[in-house]
């Protein structure tokens, strides 16, 4: 008898999605992980006001 292969089901982690921030001035989108790496939250253009951007919901579409 062969042992059935145990496949780990793909778990959807709620924290897996990345949050993006968009610069209010130039619209450059920076990921949250990128921002946290910076010494200060600042855009490449020098502006410091960001808006939270929700990444587009990626739905699995079956391609025929
Ligand atoms: Zn900017």
Structure summary:
The protein is 9% helix and 17% strand. The protein has 64 residues and is mainly beta.
Spatial order of strands in the largest sheet: 2-1-3
Total of DSSP H or I helical runs spanning 4+ residues: 1
Number of strands: 3
The proportion of strand residues reads 15-25%
Helix content: under 10%
Shape: elongated
Helix and strand run: EEHE
How would you explain this protein's 3D organization?
The chain is mainly β and 64 residues long. It has a domain at 20-53. It is 9% helix and 17% strand. The protein has one helix at residues 32-37; strands spanning 20-23, 29-31, 50-53. A 3-stranded antiparallel sheet has the order 2-1-3. Strand 1 and strand 2 (29-31) form a beta hairpin. The protein is elongated, with a radius of gyration of 19 Å. Bound molecules: zinc ion. Zinc ion binds at residues 23, 25-26, 28, 43, 45, 47. Zinc ion (ZN) is lined by residues 23, 25-26, 28, 43, 45, 47.
